[in-house]
Records
---
Amino acid sequence: MTVTVAIVGSGPAGFYTAQALLDRGDGYAIDIIDLQPAPFGLIRFGVAPDHQATKNVMRKFHQTALRDQVSFFGNVEVGRDVSVDELRDAYDAVVLAIGASDERGLNIPGGGLPGVYPSQAFAGWYNAQPQYRDLDPLLDHQAIAVIGNGNVAIDVARVLVKNENEMASSDLPEHVAAAIASSPLCDVYVFGRRGPNQAKFTNVELREMGRLEQCVSLVDPAQLPDEASGHDERDLRLKKKNLDTLRGFAGALPGSKPKRVHFQFYAMPVEVLGEARVEGLRLERTQVIEGRAQGTGETFEIACGAVVAAIGYRARAIEGAPFDDHRGVVSNTDGRVGDGLYAVGWIMRGPSGVISTNKKDGVLVAGHIEADIGGGGKPGRSGLEGLLRDRGVRAVSYDDWQAIEAAEIANATPPAPRRKFTTTDEMLAVLD
Ligand SMILES: Cc1cc2nc3c(=O)[nH]c(=O)nc-3n(C[C@H](O)[C@H](O)[C@H](O)COP(=O)(O)OP(=O)(O)OC[C@H]3O[C@@H](n4cnc5c(N)ncnc54)[C@H](O)[C@@H]3O)c2cc1C
């Protein structure tokens, strides 16, 4: 008998789970549900627009979506249009793959001023995520501060300083490109509370910052430790490479290009300055003791017009699933949440790792489903379709999505791969 599975969320974790189930045989009917009309989660709305090669994994997921056993229900929000409990009634197994979509706030005085943006909103804006279409960030100053020492901080800095030529083969939305092009921005400060040995940058991303056409990356050589350190051999290799790259930045000339990215370590933001909007940032110098940043009491300020906090993501609780508020994930034991209810990806283990890190979650949970679910027998798709019909929800099928995508590709000016629609209404209008 066919086992019916609803996967809530069409990001990497959701698609890897679908693939892993298909790898186990033909006995599964899989419906992937997403609140966005567009599939693929953060591959579309998080991965930077100039890193198209990283987005190539979508092609593999596309093949999965085309399989007979798989259906896509976009534009359907679980928790609003249909509940987790209703899905559990309709499907033999329900897999939560909803990611971690809440920001971590900048919890310091002034953190709520206009001009302070969580990276989630900022990356959503430059990636055409509909809810951030009108973020309209304040880019009217020559300097901006980015807080955080992970790849998302680098993404934000890089997207802001690359020129038109470097972005030509990206899918940066036009209104975003126009906002960046007309901005006087020439100094981006990337602040880390700890040192280069603790920074989470991967080396490919860091190295790219040394090869930008109009921007030079800088670091104070006094902030570079003599030796790299890491928590294991692999980490040590990475830190050595990063240190070499940063040594290259330390020798760069600030005036050699019109824009600058300043990597500043051992600096902890303590207050966003300004009356009605961001006018600057006050930071405290730190020292790292046993891996932790400790304030030294010495402060300094920079003038800037906006602050982007790239300090991590947090999952949002969903009704019908227990939530571990401390860890910020759905309570689960190795992906098992309850009877016939599972979690994968960032909602299962928190927001860390790269796209492929989510693959093992899908494999693990597909194994659980095979082991836990006996004969199946719940209606699955017809049950969901009935609920959506009764509620007048306009679900976007995978065929619909392909029509939307074809329009995005047709609207693009090569070498841009697509011109993304920036609102849900625009996407749905393609189908009318
Ligand atoms: C800004 C940014 C840039 C990144 N860049 C890279 C990179 O360059 N390379 C790399 O390897 N990794 C990158 N990552 C990490 C990578 O994106 C994640 O590892 C991965 O996307 C996590 O997968 P997920 O499926 O758990 O979550 P997501 O990708 O977030 O997918 C969750 C999906 O669930 C949907 N959803 C949420 N709630 C509901 C609901 N209630 N009902 C229905 N659907 C719902 C969402 O719309 C989304 O489609 C980046 C992450 C971020 C935040």
---
Amino acid sequence: MLRLHHAPMACSLASRFALVEAGLAHEIAFIHTTKGEQNTPAYRQINPRGKVPALETDQGVLTESTAILPFIADLAPDKALLPPVGAFARAQAQAWLSFLSSTLHTAMRAVMAPAVGCEGEAARTAAVARVAATLEEIDAHLAGRDHMLDAFSVCDLYLGVFLLWRAAPGLAGQLPALSNLDLFQQRLFSRTALAAIVGEELRLRMAA
Ligand SMILES: N[C@@H](CCC(=O)N[C@@H](CS)C(=O)NCC(=O)O)C(=O)O
């Protein structure tokens, strides 16, 4: 049984979405990072870095969204959540996953949870500008397209989490209106299963 260690509304939500879209049997182990549960000795046994996501599999623990999302997609080839291994389109998908992780996530984190020494107003303003520029680039890519790739994929699920973060404290009201991203987000969360998960996640996050 796959077991996803996940914090409500964290980047690990993309892996939760992917497990559901893949139709794979799984369990969710909630790690309330707002309460420091990622730093308990028990969780450090699972992921010594103290981060979510961590996916327990029958082959061991896998960390890093950019590894977990393709792993899940490949477990359900009938769902075609990524192009096949070896195809150029697969490498393009990997490029988007890397970009979302290394550029968009990093910029958003610098606003929402700045590193020690980077909490000042100038650093915050620069980080918001990096988020805005990154979102503008993705918005331009989505012009005339329904998905990040030619079809629905885990790239869409990963982007969807960061689009939800636009409403988080520190980012809400700070970003430009981007119509392609807004339409993409509406389409993505018109998928009933994903919308239900987001509702649960928001309730859990508010209760934390
Ligand atoms: N590169 C990692 C980043 C994981 C990460 O930063 N997770 C955050 C939640 S979005 C976390 O666990 N934060 C807890 C902490 O830093 O204490 C991935 O994409 O899987």
---
Amino acid sequence: MPKTVFMAKRYHARVKNSPPIPVAVIGVGRMGRHHARVYSELDEARLAAVVDDDAARAQASASEYGCETCTSVDELLERFPDLRAASIATPTVHHRSAAEALLERGVACLIEKPLAPSSVDARAIADLARARGVTVQVGHTERFNPVVRATAELGVRPLFIETQRVGPMSFRSIDVGVVFDLMIHDLDIVLMLARAPLVDVSAVGVSVLGTHEDVANARLVFEGGCVANLTASRLARKPERKLRAFADDAYVSIDYAAKAGVLLSAADHAEALASLRTRLAAGEDLSSLDYGSIVKPREIPIDEEEPLRAELAHFLAAVESGERPAVDAEAGHAAVEAAERVVASLRQHEIEGRAVEARGSWG
Ligand SMILES: NC(=O)c1ccc[n+]([C@@H]2O[C@H](COP(=O)([O-])OP(=O)(O)OC[C@H]3O[C@@H](n4cnc5c(N)ncnc54)[C@H](O)[C@@H]3O)[C@@H](O)[C@H]2O)c1
């Protein structure tokens, strides 16, 4: 296989000669402590403080990454009036209250995904950010997976997208269903690739361990005809995170976990495909041909930058330059709104299923 490569541009241009940006992390649990670690490693940031309801947790991160602790956002804003940016990695239900306090004081926010538990809250955050002219980026980290960045740069306009995001139950984030927990990553990527309004959503789901869905499948139809089929499960035995897409002129396959992807482009095979078409039209029997040896996918190359590091560096560059970040509050809102439509559809499907069961027949 030829190793024709095309590198993803770095999303962030290092801002030269600027002093480090004073930052904080709100919520240093499973995700937030990684934000604290990455900020402590980045030259562009000066980690001033971490905030957590759990004082022992805050102290552990502060000791490890060399910063102060606060027990509330109010205390943070009072003690660090020069704060310019913060990551919000509290449980999703608390994103809006923390974001409002910070945005009102002009502090840029990197808000973990999903942006909010509802599109109403997500809209409120996006509107406030716009009104105050303050940067908001949403933590859809998968966008910073190098293979996704490279794919986005190809500019492929897919007609069909299929995603699989399945894994074993982690017993975390069980306050939300698998759509807001896992499928939201793919909803964000699919919305980015489809680049068209969502016109129809049809979904099914199954709740096994609680009241929220643990397995879901959704079919999304976009204006212009692109169709996406998304599957998410937190009850699978083995993890798998994949995306496949085809367009008129290309096929892309991504394995997120392996950070690997391939592109099959019609342009790369124009001559071979033209010859095949001619021979088929002439009625030639090609059943002995090995199609796999004719089409040669290009590997989508990766750089080894940690996606969270790329995400936070991109955020800091946006704070410094005032430019719109790649995953802004509008993108975060769009993903939440799409997730709500998926959940509404799968609930409706459940209700209709129960009604049919109660009638005792599908007739
Ligand atoms: N980008 C990703 O891939 C990814 C992965 C996992 C989680 N997340 C998101 O990150 C966020 C946090 O998830 P997690 O798994 O780290 O949760 P977690 O429960 O492990 O950590 C949350 C932390 O926030 C603290 N906290 C709660 N309320 C607070 C408040 N009002 N003020 C300050 N601190 C508060 C808790 O004490 C805890 O330490 C969620 O929005 C989740 O959806 C994103």
